User: What shape does this take?
Amino acid sequence: MFSKVATRSGYYIYTHTEYPSLVRGGHNVMQISVSDKEVFAPTQHTNLLVALNQETIDLHYHELVEGGFLLFDVVSNLDTSKVSNNVHIFPIPLAKLAESNGGSPLMSNTVALGATIGILGGDIAHLKNLLSEEFAKKGEEVTQQNHAAALAGYDYARDHFAQFTTSTLKPKEEHSPLMVVNGNQAAALGAVAAGLQFAAIYPMTPTSNILHTLAPLQKEYGFIYKQPEDELAAINMALGASFAGARSLVATSGGGFCLMSEGYGLAGLAELPVVIIEGMRGAPATGIPTWTEQGDLRFVLHAHQGDFPRIVLAAGDAKEAFDLTMQAFNLADIYQTPVLILVDKHICENDQSYELFDYSGYEVDRGKFTTEKIENYQRFALSSDGISLRSTPGTGNHLLANSDEHDPYGYSNEEIENRNQQMQKRMKKLETCAQNHMPAPQLFGPDKADVTIVSWGSNKGSILQAIEQFDNVNFLHLTWVNPFPTQAVRERLQKAKYLINVECNYTAQMGGLIKERTGIEILDNYLKYDGRPIYPEEIIEKVNKVLGR
Assistant: This one.
């Protein structure tokens, strides 16, 4: 709600949410960055800390900057002795203000939100409008209680701490409308925009909110969402829908994708389009399931036995999650093979402000697809580009989806010549895809630089935020993993004076893939695997060390 107050006032935001791997309880915290210009990443410092308990002060007081603010409930008798004398302390009777204005102590957070808006010079009307939207289903009484609680906090802060109030959130007279969206929501909306017809998703952190976003939209946008009993059922349902001609989606995390790997290979051999969103988190096994990581890159490239064409894309932020999901549905249909989109917890669950996504130029491309009856139809006919004409049940064409090696009609066939021809036909798809659809990786910063950072996925935001501090650093951002833009990457890295590979995993998985595909080994790796994202400050410190500063 604070983020939406900021965006409705004309500011950009970025939120970073942390919570423990517990069903209930534990320390939960959300950091919100606000700026006049776009914000791409969280930060290691805090200007204003709202502490609803002692644990919050104990864990985060060291993040407060000189001249920062600490807001807490004075009645709670919280210990602030460790807090710097250069931090302004704002004790406010949060629970008492909530109760005295017709609410309950549970509304202390609403009082704190109102006080925060007051200290930062925000518009209380924006907050009241948001509270009305949030509590509309709970009735007018609850809405009015929250209005009163927010206003009480706002007035108390303005009356008691007037000398410290700022204009940080002062509404701008003119600004473009901004939306607050996370990667899960963006991927879900990208699927809808791409003409999604069937989704089977078993809930698993960090992609569960994809299903929460999709489920209410089924009727309005004409697709079916099914929550199956497990991930095996999910991918097999999606493949069945794909066989019937529907644009199909599954979403899961690494553990769920383990269960989907058999269906992954079936899609490759039976040449069934399906889009798979894989949200990475701390691993292996259950690992640290509510924290972020980029450890599944090699896994998705080699899951299932044997070789088959798989297209693997990696989103760097919510906007890329939206765009790549739309693109994935076309790629899946055109190349009749699974397309997997890698995201991670850092993208999935952190909000960012954007101007409204524009998909007006998007066109659905079903590829070589027919609903007409064709004499002597061969579902797996040999072709120069590796792609056969696809049909659906009910057209009168003879259709098989065979998990054995098969001949052009789909019947099992283990003969040498047939095996070679069908394998070569399928694998040809990757070459065709690279020629026709794979873009060059994006370079941020100057063409010539003293330091070139190479990375992928959600590190994008922190790196972009960091390189704003330098005029001699650039950044190569990789979104296509398979097929891999070998020539473009090799040419760019050969130009570099000094290379740093940045990843959130232990073994520099992208660095290894780059060496495998280009022959270039990046010797300096900045790796992090503690479940926390890489912060801009960490990138800045690393680059400064390389530059000798």
Notes: The two ends are 41 Å apart (CA to CA).
